[in-house]
Amino acid sequence: MKTPIFTGSGTAIVTPMLDGAIDLDAFARLIEAQAAGGTAALIVCGTTGEGATLTPDEREKLFRFAVKKSAGRMKIVAGVGSNDTSAALAMAKRAESAGADGLLLVTPYYNKTTQAGLVKHFTYIADRTDLPIIVYNVPSRTGVGVTPETYAALADHPRINAVKEANGDIGAFARTVALCGDRLNFFSGNDSDTVAMMALGAKGVISVASNIVPAAVSRLCDLCLAGDYPAAAALNREYMDLFTALFWEVNPIPVKTAMGMMDLCSPEMRLPLVPMGDGHRQALAKVLAAHGLIR
């Protein structure tokens, strides 16, 4: 059995920006809000954190800042994935030096690879780091997915600890759990799938929605961990419109737009991300208002 890096709600936290630079003052406020909301872990510089457009120095600065500001209240998982195995390892070493608790590694994108290549990619990095690794599977973005059989092969490595599963295929997830048992820990990579995946054995979620409703997502996970799935399903139904709205356009465009509306941070993003379309923006505002998040 592998001890999970965290259980419950992990927030794929945004990277606040102002005039092109990282806004550390806003980042500090967001970290405090996450701690107050019961979040168990912060996933820093992932997809939602725009890690792909951050320099290595910026990513390391964010890792160090999150570790210091969290002060042990939440686990810090560093997003270090790349389609270049050597670059991912170099970033993993920076995360280790910064004091991160774990690593999030997305499957290689664009140049992609075979299933055998995925095993070699993750194993190469796991052999050279002391931190536990979460494999991030999101084929809609990367163009390559991890099969249940490949997960079973990766599960043999002691430092490949968990999976963030965002393929949207609950049947494939069920097969993966059956093959891997307790040799891997699992987290939902989609807010809308959390209850279903936790019913099948996932330990929690790496969430986008928890950027704006951390207490609700934490409560959802707590209910699942306690086995109260009727209450969890009811809470899931309550927030499904929000979970859906946050993916009307490419993440993190909607969540950053929402956070701007809520005065949590600037909605600024780096290109190629652009402001949310007017129609979606107006509809998103109605969803936020319905949940009492804006007036």
In short:
The protein has 295 residues and is α/β, with parallel strands linked by helices. Helices cover 45% and strands 14% of the residues. Helix 3 (85-98) runs parallel beside helix 4, helix 6 packs parallel to helix 7 (170-180) and helix 9 (214-225) runs antiparallel to helix 10.
Q: How would you describe this structure to a colleague?
A:
By secondary structure, the protein is of the alpha/beta class. Helix content is 45%, strand content 14%. It has helices at 24-36, 56-70, 85-98, 115-126, 139-142, 148-154, 170-180, 194-199, 214-225, 229-245, 253-261, 278-290, and strands spanning 8-12, 17-18, 21-22, 41-44, 75-79, 102-106, 133-137, 160-165, 185-188, 204-207. The protein starts with 7 loop residues before the first strand and ends in a 5-residue tail after the last helix. The mean pLDDT is 98.
Q: Could you say what the CATH topology is called?
A: TIM Barrel
Q: Report the average pLDDT across residues.
A: 98
3D shape: globular
> What structural class do the secondary elements suggest?
alpha/beta
Task: Give the C-level CATH assignment.
Answer: Alpha Beta
| Name of the CATH superfamily | Aldolase class I
State the share of residues found in helices, binned by percent.
40-55%
Uncertain runs are: none
Number of strands: 10
Strand order of the largest sheet: 1-4-5-6-7-8-9-10
Rg, please? 18 Å
